[in-house]
Design goal:
single chain, 472 residues, alpha/beta, 6-stranded parallel β-sheet, 4-stranded parallel β-sheet, 20 helices, 16 strands, binds uridine-5'-diphosphate
Length: 472
């Protein structure tokens, strides 16, 4: 297993590995771990995650960390990660070629360069897609149009407000299309190549479940949308959740936070968290603070500092007071807490948490659905706008603070305090219908992974596929 060192990929991939091992004790999995030298905080979290993962059959192998990357001249986290993957390729090749009875390589959606290694060794690659099936469908459809009909995305979006896409039930507004597809250079340099590579995999494992994305999953069997060469089998095995209890506060602070939650009434706390990669400009932080305060609701807010260098990774604040409006912490001390990295699934599972202001990263989306906590959407980057659209418009299980906020957009306007306040009030409204609908999906998500459920079945098929290829 060779997965990029991002929390939203690696934690779930390790959970997938554990599930596979639990289902078949003939398997063993070697997780190749690489460190991202430009993200010391993320690296520390990943080290804690690995230290806390002790499962029979799951072995870790640490890849070398390049000593000096200054001559790479890259500070942007995405570009750095891709360069690092290329750097690791010969190491992966060496380890894989020495591994006895190697039956396949499991990669994530950005490590497709490793498919070359698997092909050289004559073993299959399985791709773990850590976002949703609808987004996967969008990528495959755009790639098909470009490669088979010579229709680029810029042509498709010219002069229209919406696109009909096979993996979505409703027309998709242009404003929620992910920047990784619409940004011409990014698409043609990276994403188009990844998507072509997805077709080289022998299976695509998607972290979703069929009741959540039935439209997208059934669309994969319609060749007319996805081109002449058939797609690899799709295995919707989710939700696979980040169950790690990693936090960056001291254990005392973390248990104090959980104890504080224990003392709050049921469904009374709004939780605000924007994943592992997002952070806000100081002006926006002020607006969020005012919005929270004006809503009058109890809150738990994970607030992280923007990266030191453009395109880097956010970190926890050393002094929160400096980031917040004067007096905010004192005035709200009896109803809320502002914290650094928390064990999110544990927080969302807590009965005091009644709503989630989220950036709609796919993992956070699945975690909130699983816990039955409705989201107020505030996408920030990547494919999050698309996820927000799915949650609000297609599934009706979220309310909207924004659907198309996009930090990469030039002149992105601030989300004003009133909009934050309105979103919090809506999501915390006990009579809001989205609350009932998200509970229904929570139930479905739990059934999916139980024996007899669709994801349980798909995982069984995946294991069978791996085993049948290695015994052939
Ligand atoms: N997460 C967490 N604590 C935090 C922030 C994030 O445990 O304070 C976890 C969260 O539970 C999720 C992952 O980090 O599993 C973030 O993945 P997601 O796809 O939601 O967003 P990304 O970080 O990739 O933007």
């Amino acid at each position: 297993m060779m997965v990029s060192p991002l929390m939203g990929h690696l934690a779930q991939a390790l959970e997938l590995a554990k599930l596979m091992l639990a289902r078949n004790n003939q398997l063993s999995i070697i997780a190749l771990i690489m460190e991202l030298p430009i993200d010391p905080h993320g690296t520390a979290r990943i080290q804690s995650l690995i230290a806390a993962t002790n499962v029979e059959g799951l072995h870790f192998h640490h890849l070398p960390t390049p000593e000096d990357t200054s001559d790479w001249n890259i500070t942007h986290r995405g570009l750095f990660t891709f360069k690092l993957l290329e750097y690791q390729k010969p190491h992966v090749r060496e380890i894989a070629s020495k591994t006895k009875k190697l039956s396949g390589l499991l990669i994530d959606l950005v490590s497709t360069t490793m498919i070359d290694v698997a092909d050289e060794l004559g073993v299959p690659t399985y791709l773990f897609f850590t976002s949703g099936a609808a987004f996967l469908g969008l990528m495959l459809h755009f790639q098909t149009l470009e490669d088979e009909q010579n229709r680029g995305i810029s042509d498709l979006v010219k002069g229209v407000s919406h696109l009909i896409l096979p993996s979505f039930a409703k027309p998709v507004p242009i404003g929620v299309l992910p920047a990784i597809a619409t940004h011409k250079e990014y698409w043609s340099t990276f994403v188009l190549k990844w998507t072509r590579d997805y077709r080289r995999a022998k299976g695509i494992i998607v972290n979703t479940f069929s009741d959540l994305e039935s439209n997208a999953i059934s669309s994969f069997s319609l060749d007319s949308y996805y081109g002449k060469s058939s797609l690899p089998p799709i295995f919707p095995v989710g939700p696979i959740l980040n169950r790690s209890q990693i936090h960056t506060q001291s254990s005392e602070d973390c248990s104090a936070m959980m104890k504080w939650l224990d003392c709050q009434p049921k469904n009374s706390v709004v939780f605000l968290c924007f994943g592992s990669l997002a952070s806000f400009h100081p002006d926006q932080v002020q607006e969020i603070a005012y919005g929270i305060e004006r809503s009058g609701h109890r809150f738990l807010w994970v607030l992280r500092q923007p990266p030191a260098k453009d395109g880097g990774f956010p970190r926890d604040y050393e002094n929160l007071e400096l980031a917040l409006p004067e007096g905010f912490l004192n005035q709200t001390a009896s109803i809320g807490k502002v914290v650094g990295w928390v064990p999110q699934l544990a927080v969302l599972s807590h009965s005091a948490v009644g709503g989630f202001v989220s950036h709609c990263g796919w993992n956070s989306t699945l975690e909130s659905i699983f816990c039955g906590v409705p989201i107020a959407t505030w996408p920030v980057q990547a494919e999050q706008q698309l996820n927000a659209f799915q949650l609000v418009r297609e599934l009706g299980i979220a309310v909207e603070i924004s659907l198309d906020y996009n930090q990469q957009k030039e002149n992105q306007a601030l989300v004003p305090a009133e909009q934050v306040e309105k979103g919090i009030r809506e999501i915390m409204d006990v009579e809001n219908e989205v609350r009932i609908r998200v509970k229904e999906f929570s139930e479905k998500s739990r059934l999916a992974t139980k024996e007899g459920g669709s994801s349980y079945f798909a995982l069984g098929n995946l294991i069978q596929d791996i085993c049948s290829r290695s015994s052939a």
